[in-house]
Specification:
By secondary structure, the protein is of the alpha/beta class. The chain contains nine helices and 14 strands. The strands form two sheets. The protein has a ten-stranded mixed β-sheet with strand order 5-4-1-8-9-10-11-12-13-14, sandwiched between helices. Strand 11 and strand 12 (about 220) form a beta hairpin. Helix 1 packs across helix 7 and helix 7 (about 240-255) runs antiparallel to helix 8.
Length: about 300
């Protein structure tokens, strides 16, 4: 079982002719709302990939919170670890341009009240993987990661938004190129090359690191192995859910016992397929869709 400790947001998505510059007002004909948050998205992505998933986090005592819990519950995610806080449910404002590029601003709200003690020892005892992101309090993440490592779980962190990490609490780190620079700088690894960061973490901390490269796929370095996985060619509509599809699918594949390189291939296809529909959670692919496109992916290349 995968336990996801993370954020639950209601997304407000606005289609715009171009992403605004600082100080610029851009008009859009309409907006829509959709369930989201990196935690909730990755939980649903893992469930759609075939994993058994429990979600821990915090929502407000409002319609958005109730709707979020109901939506992910219908996806088969166990919502019993979601608490109700005193702040409103988090909101994410997401303008998306015609090429699928986006900007995201999150009002954290109840995500700031997420507490790791909701994940009790008996829950950790029944789980095999813990999946984390950076949209809930950092101290809570670190405390839960330490408990999970002590209990023998695999701990995966998607360091988004970009922030420093504590390598000894993790088994696998997932970052994009920008996040790799932030994480590397905080650890005294000044090179802007993501491969340098990944290799340094593998050598110094025994930590596997995956760096996602957008449409170019990803690279991964773990003790004793280095891989490049090419991207799947798609005509992107909206990239907002791609990273979450990648992380949730990767966690599900590893939890099912797949080797790292095979899990990366599934995750890469899932990330690409999430760009084919608007929104984050609604666009997350199911396992059958990933299976149908997996053969189109170029073979992985050892580095």
């Amino acid at each position: 079982m995968i336990v996801v400790f993370g954020s639950l947001n209601m997304d407000i998505i606005v289609r715009v002719p171009h992403l605004p510059e600082p100080g610029e007002t851009v008009l859009a004909p309409e907006h829509r709302t959709a369930p989201g948050g990196k935690g909730a998205n990755q939980a649903v992505a893992a469930a759609r990939a075939g994993a058994r998933v429990a979600m821990a986090g915090c929502v407000g005592a409002d319609d958005n919170g109730r709707d979020l819990a109901a939506v992910i519950g219908r996806e088969g995610v166990d919502t019993g670890l979601i608490s109700v806080g005193g702040k409103p449910t988090a909101l994410a404002m997401i303008p998306v341009d015609g090429a699928g590029a986006n900007q995201i601003v999150v009002s954290s709200g109840a995500n700031g009240e997420a507490r790791q003690d909701r994940v009790t020892d008996d829950v950790l005892g029944a789980a095999s993987t813990l999946l984390l992101q950076h949209e809930v309090p950092r101290a809570e993440n670190i405390a839960l990661a330490r408990r999970a490592r002590a209990a023998g779980l695999r701990v995966i962190l998607n360091a988004a938004p970009a922030a420093p990490v504590v390598p000894e609490t993790l088994d696998l780190l997932v970052v994009n190129e920008v996040e790799a620079g932030v994480v590397g700088g905080a650890l005294g690894i000044p090179s802007g090359d993501p491969l340098d960061l990944a290799q340094a973490l593998a050598d110094g901390a025994g930590l596997a690191t995956v760096v996602t490269l957008g449409e170019r796929g990803c690279i991964a370095v773990a003790p004793g192995e280095r891989w490049r996985v090419a991207g799947l060619a798609v005509r992107a509509i909206d990239s907002v859910g791609a990273g979450d599809a990648f992380c949730g699918t990767l966690a599900a594949a590893l939890d099912a016992g797949l080797a790292l390189v095979d899990a990366l291939r599934r995750a890469t296809v899932a990330g690409a397929l999430a760009c084919l529909e608007p929104g984050a959670m609604p666009a997350l692919p199911h396992a059958a869709s990933v299976d149908a496109r997996l053969a189109e992916l170029a073979p992985p290349v050892p580095l």
